Amino acid sequence: MPGHRTKGFCASAAALALCAMLAGCGGSGESVGGGKVVLRYTWWGNPDRAERTEQAVALFEKQHPNIQVRTSFSAYEAYKQKLAVQASGGDAPDVMQLDYRQIDQYASGGVLLDLAEQKAVLRTGEIDPGLLATGRLDDTQYAIPQGRGTETVAYDVKAWKASGVPLPGKSWTWSEWADTMRALAKKTGKPGATDPGQSEDCFEVWLRGRGKSLYTEDGGLGFTADDLTRWWTFTDKLRREGAVSPAEQTTQLDGSVENTPLGRGEAVSDANWDAPASGFLALIPTGVALAPMPSGEDGTPGQYFKPSMFLGVGAGTNHPKEAAQLVDFLINDEQAARILGASRGIPVNESIREETASQLKDFDKTIAEYQSSLEGSLKDPPQAPPSGDNALQATFQRDYDQVSYERMSPREAAENYVTEAKAELRS
Amino acid sequence: MTTTDIPAPATRKPGATTTPKRRPRRESQGPAWVFLSPWVLGAIVLTLLPMAVSLYLSFTDYDLFNPPRWVGLRNYVQMFTEDPRYWRSVVTTLTYVVIAVPLQLALALAVALALKSMKRGKGFYRSAFYAPSLLGASMSIALVWRAVFNDGGTVDNLLGTGGWVNKPGWALLAVALLTVWQFGAPMVIFLAGLQQIPAELYEAAAVDGAGKWRQFLSVTVPMLSPVLFFNLVLQTIQAFQVFTPAFAIGAGKGGPADSTLVYTLYLYDRGFVASHMGYASAMAWVLLIVIGVVTAVLFRTSRSWVFYASEGDR
Question: Where does the record locate the signal sequence feature (chain A) (predicted)?
Answer without folding.
Answer: 1-25
